[in-house]
Design a protein that fits this description.
With 194 residues, the protein is of the alpha+beta class. Helices cover 15% and strands 26% of the residues. The protein has a five-stranded antiparallel sheet, with no helix packed on it. A four-stranded antiparallel sheet has the order 1-9-4-5, with no helix packed on it. The protein is elongated, with a radius of gyration of 31 Å.
Length: 194
């Protein structure tokens, strides 16, 4: 008896479904609905960094063997250091494969013990200055008139977003952090953002 009831219930359900189906042609598409809310911010392949590549011959002698270069606002915009931290790296091309190293950096460019120290500072007006000084007090790289370009990369990070365990001396860690946390980047509109 239970089997008969199950069969009858299945037949009755099928009849209802068939009789309720709509016949005829498909009508026109309705109007587009409203835009939904934005999704969560995810990892991005667009890194917010500033590449600064000044020619060696653009560094001016300051004093005590120190050479300096002030970036232009198109290279690096004025930064408010109250809320932000600037993390800098230099492209070291002496190794077999070029790599970014944290600033300050002692760049051993010859086989001896002489090196050129590269470092940077952000002035009170928010402008970025690059400095270099040869360890023996001589002209950095032996020829200050050389037009070869030096490579620097800077990230501007919001202080409140930087975790205590982030190693700011590791390019790989900073790059990974920026990819995973794009909201931590301080974007400034008048500079080239990559």
């Amino acid at each position: 008896m239970k089997t008969n009831k199950s069969i009858l219930l299945a037949i009755f359900s099928a009849i209802i479904l068939i009789s309720c189906s709509k016949g005829g042609e498909i009508g026109p598409q309705g109007p587009q609905g409203q835009q939904g809310p934005p999704g969560p911010a995810g990892a991005s392949n667009l890194l917010g960094y500033y590449d600064v590549t000044p020619p060696l011959n653009q560094f001016a002698w300051q004093s005590n063997g120190v050479y300096q270069y002030q970036t232009t606002t198109s290279q690096f915009p004025p930064i408010n250091l109250n809320n932000n931290t600037v993390v800098g790296f230099m492209l070291n091309t002496v190794t077999t494969s070029a790599q970014f190293v944290a600033l300050p950096h002692n760049h051993y460019w010859n086989s001896g013990s002489v090196y050129v120290k590269h470092y940077f500072a952000v002035a009170g007006n928010g402008r970025l200055w690059l400095y270099m000084r040869r360890s023996d007090g001589g002209v950095p790289y032996g020829n200050q008139n050389d037009p070869v370009q030096l490579g620097y990369r800077f990230f501007v990070l919001k202080k409140a977003q930087i975790p205590d365990d982030l190693n700011l001396d590791s390019y790989e860690e900073v790059e990974r952090f920026v990819i995973q946390n794009p909201e931590a980047i301080e974007f400034v509109s008048n500079a080239e953002i990559r």
